[in-house]
Amino acid sequence: MIDHIGFPVSDLSASSAFYERALAPLGISLLMEVTEEMTGGHGAHLGFGRDNKPFFWIGTGRPAVSAAHVAFAASDRAVVDAFHKAALDAGGRDNGAPGLRPIYHPGYYGAFVLDPDGNNIETVYHGEGGA
Asked: How would residue 66 be classed by pLDDT, with cut points 50, 70 and 90?
């Protein structure tokens, strides 16, 4: 099981604004800020999560050559829909409208957006017949 994940972004401020809005429907918010000074010159980092547990991190640094894919679990289809709308409203680019993806399994309902760096950010509800 993964405890947390993180990756560098090209503009920490812009990405922070994007993720604060896009992840709000999932109940995920900015919980921790680690400054460049605190890391001894190893970058600034922002931790998003819930219940006082940051589990999704973005930070300064050189973004990866190829995009990352991160999927967040949603409690129902309405949350998937709300995430997609919030992410687009926050400046994300559509990479797959909310809908069933039966290729994965019959109840797989997901939506995909590209963040400011082109990372593929998904939210998924496994629903009936889910994994």
From this structure: confident
Query: Residue with structure tokens 């819930």?
Result: 50
List, in order, residues 6 or more apart from 121 with CB less than 8 Å away.
22, 69, 70, 71, 72, 87, 92, 112, 113, 114, 115
Return the CATH fold of 5-59+67-125: 2,3-Dihydroxybiphenyl 1,2-Dioxygenase; domain 1 (3.10.180)
81 membership: H or E segment, kind and range: helix 77-89
The 10s digit of each residue's pLDDT in 82-102 is: 999 999 999 999 999 999 999
| Whether the predicted pLDDT of 129 surpasses 80 | no
Strand partners, 113: 94, 121
Structure tokens, 46: 């922002």
Instruction: Round to whole Å and give the CA distance between 65 and 60.
Output: 15
